[in-house]
From TrEMBL:
Protein name stated in the entry: Uncharacterized protein
Residue intervals passing through the bilayer: 12-30
Organism annotation: Congregibacter variabilis
UniProt keyword annotations, A-Z: Membrane, Transmembrane, Transmembrane helix
Length: 160
C-alpha cells in the first residue's frame, strides 16, 4: 500500500475543491438562465394582460369604438373625440415604450418585442395618430431612447 504525504493529500484536496467550485459555478449559471427565462415570461404575461385589458376596454366602450372607427375611415374627429383618441394613442405608446425598455434591458425576448413594435407602427399609420405621437414626443412624456427608435422605425415621410 502506498503511503501519501500530507503535501500529496493537500494537492488532492485542492483538486477536489477546484472541481466543486466548477460544478457550483455551472449550477449557478443554470439557475441564472432559468431565472432569466422566468422573468421574461412574467414580463411578457404582464404586457399581454395590460394589452388585453386595453383591447377589451376599447371594444366594450361604444364611444371609443366609434372614435376608432372614425380614425380608421379617416373621418375628421371633433374636439372630444380627439381627446379620447389621444388617450388611446398615449396608452399604446406607453405600452410599447415599456416593451421597448424591457427588451433593451434583456427582460423581453426578440419575438415578443417584434409584436409590440409592429403594433405601434400600425397605430401610427394614420395622420391623426402620427400627430399625437409627435405631440407626445415634443412634450417629453416619452423616453428619449424609445422616441429615437420609433423615429427610425417609421418611414421617413411619417416623422416630422
Amino acid at each position: 500500500m502506498v503511503k501519501r504525504t500530507l503535501e500529496e493529500w493537500a494537492s488532492v484536496g485542492e483538486i477536489i475543491s477546484a472541481v466543486a467550485v466548477v460544478i457550483s459555478l455551472l449550477y449557478v449559471g443554470y439557475q441564472v438562465n432559468q431565472n432569466t427565462d422566468q422573468m421574461r415570461a412574467a414580463n411578457r404575461q404582464q404586457l399581454v394582460n395590460r394589452s388585453l385589458d386595453a383591447t377589451k376596454g376599447f371594444a366594450m366602450n361604444p364611444e371609443v369604438a366609434r372614435v376608432l372607427t372614425k380614425v380608421e375611415n379617416q373621418v375628421e374627429l371633433n374636439q372630444e373625440e380627439q381627446t379620447q383618441f389621444s388617450y388611446v394613442i398615449r396608452g399604446v405608446l406607453y405600452d410599447v415604450q415599456e416593451a421597448f425598455l424591457l427588451h433593451a434591458e434583456g427582460g423581453l425576448d426578440e419575438g415578443y418585442w417584434g409584436t409590440r413594435a409592429n403594433l405601434v407602427k400600425i397605430y401610427l399609420q394614420t395622420p391623426v395618430a402620427r400627430k399625437l405621437y409627435l405631440s407626445n414626443r415634443e412634450q417629453g412624456v416619452l423616453h428619449p431612447r424609445f422616441t429615437a427608435w420609433l423615429d427610425q422605425a417609421l418611414p421617413r415621410n411619417e416623422v416630422l
